[in-house]
Give the backbone structure.
Amino acid sequence: MAHVRTYRPNVRVGNWREDVTLEEDTLKDFLERKERGELMVQKTGFLKQNILKQLYLTSDHKTFQKCAKKSRLQEVIMEHQANFLSWWKVLHHDPQERLEHEGLPVPANSKVLISHCKTNQALAVVGQHILWTPYGKEYQVTAVVVLTYCSSSNIVYSCRTLYGK
């Protein structure tokens, strides 16, 4: 029976002034944060409104001020407006067969390279660079071409893909 209230709710007992002041401060802080749009409910609502808008994958040449956050490679971002920086082409993963497959439909679940038309850099996921976003942990997406040498000493362009090959 220690927690049973023997008084009416409007009876002031103990440290009542401190409790009232604390409740007023909490309400005031809540209203200020609501006014500024800092409540988590408002942030998720804003995120849900913007998540369904059409976005375009764009990229441009790497500069000292304009590059990916962690890897410092060519930056790939999403923008609301389409322009020549958002033109990409799908290439066959094997360089020997690219010319044969040019202009053909891409079969489902096939390995491909997505290459930026202006910079000729391939879309890549850098495995060692992880970013924290509102959605959780994500790998950094960049545009980069990795050179590998074949046995015939010809330079073949390939790219690090989601498959890790």
